[in-house]
Amino acid sequence: MTPNGRSSRIRVLVAEQAARRGGRVGVVDVCTAAVASLPVGGAGMSAMSRTTASYPLCSTDGISEQLEELQLTLGEGPCVDAFTHGSAILTPDLRTGELQDCWPVFADAALETGARAVFALPLQIGAISPGVLDLYAQVPVRLNAEELADALAFAEFATLVLLDARIDATGEPPDDGATKRHIEDLGGYRAEISQATGMLTVQLGVGIDEAFVRLRAYAYAQGHRLTVVAADVVARRLRFSPDTDPTRTDEDT
Amino acid sequence: MNERLLAKTFVELADNLVADFDLIDFLRLLTDRCVGILGASAAGVLLADRDGELRVMAASDEQVRLLELFQLQNDEGPCLDCYRTGLPVTVPDLLTETARWPRFAAQAQLHGFGAVQALPMQLRDDVVGALNLFRTTPGPFDPVGTPIAQALADVATISLLQQRSTQRSTVLNEQLQTALNSRVLIEQAKGKLAERQGIDMEQAFTALRRYARAHNRRLSDVARALIDDTEPLAGLAS
């Protein structure tokens, strides 16, 4: 049993889509890979925020595009709920009575686009929640346990791709293949990564998303594993500063 | 075994399973009571994620060192064996298991632990995690204590179900993922508060929890407000 088997497989599927498209791994590749491997007809993603306006990032087809825009315009729907509650909102069939009460406008409008089942998966790592991945099908469908686990893994990877795009945008690490480094990064979940991220918000005076991006950027640039860098921050051997490069104090405490 | 204390504990746990309870806060209470009534030196609740990796949901001490000892068991150790078999694993003397779990046994001894027990958290046919108890002194576990520890592991499982029924989702897999994410949120908040106040991770957790209790708030809501800087949180994040 390899705990990260699923994550690795998902990353490879996404990388294949990027190669086919002839570009570097982006959120659109997560969407196309999800559509190729799950019983859904399309996928879309929106950037969401509590403080600034939300906006659609990408979609695989016209229906997905309409679903994203509908929800952001109406301010209701599964992706809005997934973002607000921080949990996946699984709707195997939009044509059920109670949903019409939850989303009185969205439910009918979505059915009109041709969507019948909608699954909204939050992109999140604790308080870091940059958006939502939406999947839809034109027939009623229920995701089984394996499919749901895959869908959650796609959302997890999308979160990293979306955040890493900010590193690429500032040109920090020499990028010889996003996928390679993502796969190297499979250290599994470690509490220190989250603790270090929280600590960096104070050291750098930035929000939690930015703190996480900076932690990862530093690990890439140094060629270190994220878990090692995080452990150094938590042990207070490594300190970040807004104005200068991170400084090491190697006296082990 | 103090029976009055035991009865009081179960009443207390039941009282805390109210409609809007906080899962992490509840599981921490449970691990604290494991230490209090079972004479354990440390206790933790581990939950398997969707890929079967064990992750710490709560521990009687939030120090990084102890969390590492739980995490290490994804490679080897009593929790991994318990999770895979669904059976309790009891080791009265860790020195006898250095061949079975070389890394885990060495690390546990380094922490000053001499005995360990892992009890399955079982939900119908699925094992979803384990309750892990450590003792400093080697020696046989109290035969009366083990069924009580298992009962506490069952309470931990019930709390997951309870959490699940109070939310919309009816899919266990997804619900566990949401629970694990709330643990990540707590870790981020611990880091922020520890750095800001110059305190350690356990002190940061205790401060967050004390604030939540004093203000009748959910721990994860307080953690979120701290990270997002949306509230002054007087007395916590000065």
TrEMBL record, chain B:
Q: Which UniProt keywords apply?
A: Kinase, Transcription, Transcription regulation, Transferase
Judging by the UniProt lineage, the source's domain of life is Bacteria
Q: Give the ANTAR domain ranges.
A: 166-227
Has the keyword Transcription regulation been applied to this entry? yes
Q: This chain belongs to which protein, by name?
A: GAF and ANTAR domain-containing protein
Upper lineage ranks? Bacteria, Bacillati, Actinomycetota, Actinomycetes, Kitasatosporales
Alphabetical list of SUPFAM superfamilies matching this protein: CheY-like, GAF domain-like
Classification via InterPro entries: ANTAR, CheY-like_superfamily, GAF, GAF-like_dom_sf, GAF_ANTAR, WH-like_DNA-bd_sf
Q: Does the keyword Transcription apply?
A: yes
Which organism does this record belong to? Streptomyces flavofungini
